[in-house]
Amino acid sequence: MPHDPVPALLARATQLLEAEFALLPEFGAAPDLAGMERVLEATARRLADNYPYFHPLYAGQMLKPPHPVARAAYALAMTLNPNNHARDGGRASSAMEMEAVAQIAGMFGWTEFLGHLTSGGTFANLEALWVAGRLAPGRRIVGSEQAHYTHRRISGVLQLPYAGIAADSRGRMDVDALEAEVRKGDVGAVVVTLGTTAAGAVDPLDRVLELRRRYGFRVHVDAAYGGYFRLIPEALDEPARRAYAVLGEADSIVIDPHKHGLQPYGCGCVLFRDPSVGRFYKHDSPYTYFTSKQLHLGEISLECSRAGASAVALWATQQLLPLVEGGEFARGLARGRAAALELDRRLRADAHFEPLAAGGPELDIVVWKLRAPTAEQASELARKLFAACAARDLHLALVQLPHSWFAPASPAGSGNHEGPVTCLRSVLMKPEHEAWLQRIWERLSAACAETVGE
């Protein structure tokens, strides 16, 4: 593991925080330091049973290490363990949450909005669809078949009908299929995904908004993974650039700071363009907090207790790395995007591999299959290559996609284009992935030579 500068910085900051409360009388017994040392040593040994998520050779799932300042700020806040349900439970951290959320909303051009942090993208999406259901009771929710499965599950929890819309061969929502659904007149909200989990696909938000003007439904954007790419439009291809350019016209947006935002789990964020939807959250509890007359976050959130430490970590990170185009944070996103484009280029030049036939990655996720006569054979080779890469400390992921997405590049007569095929998937979301791409490729090539031969 790399040298960790956090403990020294945290120790100094902890001293400063403790000094702020130095006038309070001492209390409590000293902790059992010997017992704590024993347990923490055992904890460290248990935690070693993990993939090296922090390292650039881990390029599988959507796991990005928190920034050191986020880790330090989170740990510092845990000295107080604030609860951002209300100002009584998290006075400073509530204010920091509001500031941090306003900075996220500013990426999309919003200055008047309603928003807050959540425990993750699932709960953030639940709140967005809950509001959609309150505005259009009983009407259907629709989303791409490549949208996250949580939308169908959430709709079931909310007892709202849900329908999946076909996706094209790059994993993007088919707008013609969407229009056929909304023309029926019973769709209350359309979920548009900017950065699908499987392939990082970007739904054509600009075209969906054109349909909204004609058919009058609500547009919710699930940008849990891809929201921050709004900061690097010049690095995206034209269809994705058009989608991000109109992101501010959505009715609600979800983004996950614990993905590209360099935050610890769990930290999601939900934003509503119309602040008046806050009326749906109104409650009159006899046991809530009354020492402040200001609106508290518990009055605009379905969750009650929420970790104030998450807000502190996010605030600190955005103080160090502002969410602006051309800034250091945006440059980190661009490096991951460049790594994905380079990996895709190399895969297309190698006779063993078949990336998506319709085009390269839209964000920083690359998917490809092994060349083989059938989907079953390609799937088996993918599983073997996955294991061979792991043996070389290169950690990828497996994903199942429609075999037809690769059909135009497959040998004639190979058949079996309708069912799924197991593919390899690489999420190049760490800025270091650009510098490590050559070493990643060397390991992948060596594993491929062992698996399928030269």
What can you see in these coordinates?
This protein has 454 residues and is of the alpha/beta class. The chain has two domains: 91-320, 3-Layer(aba) Sandwich (Aspartate Aminotransferase, domain 2); 328-452, Alpha-Beta Complex (Aspartate Aminotransferase, domain 1). 39% of the residues lie in helices and 13% in strands. It has helices at 6-20, 33-47, 68-77, 91-107, 121-135, 150-157, 175-182, 205-215, 238-245, 308-320, 328-349, 375-391, 433-452; strands spanning 114-118, 140-144, 162-165, 187-193, 218-222, 252-255, 268-272, 353-355, 365-370, 397-402, 420-427. The strands form two sheets. The chain has a seven-stranded mixed sheet with strand order 1-7-6-5-4-2-3, with helices on both faces. Strands 8-9-11-10 form a four-stranded antiparallel sheet. The protein is globular, with a radius of gyration of 24 Å. The relative contact order is 0.14.
What's a quick, concise take on this entry?
This protein has 13 helices and eleven strands.
